[in-house]
Amino acid sequence: MINSNHPIENLMGTTMENIRDMIDVNTVVGDAIETRDGSYIIPISKVSFGFASGGSELPNKECEKIDDRFAFGGGSGAGVSVKPVAFLVLKGDSVRLLPVNQTNTYDRIVDNIPQIIEIFKDMGIKKCKDKKEDSNFCD
């Protein structure tokens, strides 16, 4: 039985199957890593794909069609790039996203504001427990 698919379809299908085998969801969001203090670190990556395919049917004066087709020449290729962009840190009830290429000091300060607020809040609760006699302080 003759396969009715054009050869370029076979090239593209094989290339796409190989790309699918190379990359899965664990490539973008990596496996969680548990640290000694019980927190978890999950790597997050950016995955980029490039794909090209082409072919040509070249009739020749001396060559006859084979099975109603001309001689075929073709090729395909693909490229994959995986770049780490951040780490998701889970510790207790806290979730933080730590970007890999954070170069600006102001960006770091803004990103850490929730943790700074948490620290001050914890300090305030501790002071309230220590100073039970001053009820106005803890309101």
List the helices and strands and how they pair.
Layout: H1 7-22, H2 25-28, E1 33-34, E2 40-58, E3 71-91, E4 94-99, H3 105-130
Antiparallel strand pairs: 1-2, 2-3, 3-4
Protein name: Sporulation protein YtfJ
InterPro entries: Spore_YtfJ (IPR014229)
Could you characterize what this model shows?
Pfam families: Spore_YtfJ. InterPro entries: Spore_YtfJ. This is Sporulation protein YtfJ. With 139 residues, this protein is of the alpha+beta class. The protein folds into two domains: 95 residues, no CATH class; 37 residues. The chain is 33% helix and 35% strand. It contains three helices and four strands; from the N terminus they run H-H-E-E-E-E-H. A four-stranded antiparallel β-sheet has the order 1-2-3-4, covered by helices on one side. Strand 1 and strand 2 form a beta hairpin. The chain is rod-shaped, with a radius of gyration of 29 Å.
Main sheet: strands, sense, barrel: 4 strands, antiparallel
Uncertain spans: none
What is the mean predicted local confidence, pLDDT?
Answer: 75
Provide the structure class.
alpha+beta
How many structural domains? 2
Global morphology: rod-shaped
Number of strands: 4
| Radius of gyration, in angstroms, nearest whole number | 29 Å
Distance between the termini: 85 Å
Organism: Clostridium perfringens B str. ATCC 3626
Protein name: Sporulation protein YtfJ
Pfam family, one: Spore_YtfJ
